[in-house]
Specification:
309 residues; mainly beta; Thrombin, subunit H; 2 domains; six-stranded antiparallel barrel; six-stranded antiparallel beta barrel; 17 strands; 5% helix; globular; Peptidase S1 domain-containing protein
Length: 309
């Protein structure tokens, strides 16, 4: 068996068999030698290149301009995950673009890459009323070249949540509003957050049972640190020191306001969607060159007012 946290590997299911495919390295932050501890609402400006998998998904507006609409997360050189509700009423890939390796959206530097979108897939069971299955995948028209500023994050192994506790370093990042009714930030923000038990989030004076097993609560119990409008689709990334690797634990989905006490942000629980994600990635792999250098290593069986962010 592979080690419990195998940062380069993910399991694809073929009929009765599971195969472990291993990709190029993921979950690394080449420009940072240590975890950033700065505390995006309630956060600080991120360092340039700090979160190399953070993507700005932008919509084409009248006059030829593109406007940041949602966050996204790079999971391989052709694929960006985001929130399904970001696509409400605008699923035509022609109007979208992805900007990768960006820090200041008003001053895109030489390290950024802009990509048109070939295809968009929203989870077939996404529910707009409840934000259930709030996940979508963008297929880029052309692959990006990895650099210190553009890197994929690792998808979580199924058992990863057993190892997440209050000691786990988890972070959010995005270009969304910095106050509940404030303006979006042109500069990428970051904040450290706490994973909050669903039992706390579902209390009668909080979400009252709205949070299910496909969702994660994260933020601050006292409020003040949270994702906000414009951060939807962005990453909830957790660091594991045993592998020096970041895993995509969640995708920013919804919440009551921004940064309110007892109402932390709600995120799509990525481990629940491994099957759907990997099936979509397999479809992409069937149509692109094998520059991912996939290598089969092993075969084995594996026993209120609610607002989008």
């Amino acid at each position: 068996r592979p080690p419990p946290f195998s940062p380069n590997c993910t399991v694809f299911q073929f009929e009765r068999y599971n195969r472990l495919f291993c990709f190029a390295a993921c979950g690394q932050r080449p420009l940072l030698s240590s975890i950033s501890a700065s505390r995006v609402l309630g956060g600080h400006d991120a360092q340039v290149g700090a979160w190399p998998w953070s993507v700005s998904l932008q919509i084409h507006q009248a006059g030829g301009k593109f406007v940041h609409t949602c966050g996204g997360v790079l999971v391989n050189e052709n694929s960006v995950l985001t929130a399904g509700h970001c696509l409400k009423g605008r699923r035509d890939p022609y109007y979208w673009r992805a900007v990768l390796g960006a820090h200041n959206l008003w001053k895109l530097g030489e390290h950024t890459a802009k990509r048109k979108i070939r295809h968009i897939t929203v989870h077939p069971e996404f529910q707009t009323e409840t934000f259930e299955n709030d996940i979508a995948l963008f297929k880029l028209r052309s692959a990006v070249r990895y650099s210190d500023y553009i890197q994929p994050i690792c998808l979580p192994p199924a058992h990863l949540y057993q190892y997440i506790d209050n000691e786990t370093e988890c972070f959010i990042s995005g270009w969304g509003r910095t106050a509940e009714k404030g303006k979006t930030s042109p500069v990428l923000k970051e904040a450290q957050v706490e994973i909050i038990p669903s039992s706390v989030c579902n209390s009668s004076d909080a979400y009252g049972g709205l949070v299910n097993d496909n969702m994660i609560c994260a933020g601050s119990r006292s409020g003040g640190t949270d994702t906000c409008q414009g951060d939807s689709g962005g990453p909830l990334a957790c660091y594991h020191s045993s592998t020096n690797t970041y895993y995509l634990i969640g995708i920013a989905s919804f919440g009551v306001g921004c940064g309110r006490s007892k109402f932390p942000g709600i995120y799509v629980r990525l481990s629940q969607y491994r099957g759907w994600i990997t099936s979509q990635l397999l479809l992409i792999l069937g149509t692109i060159s094998l520059t991912l250098r996939i290598q089969v290593l092993l075969s084995y069986n594996l026993d209120f007012e609610v607002n989008p962010k």
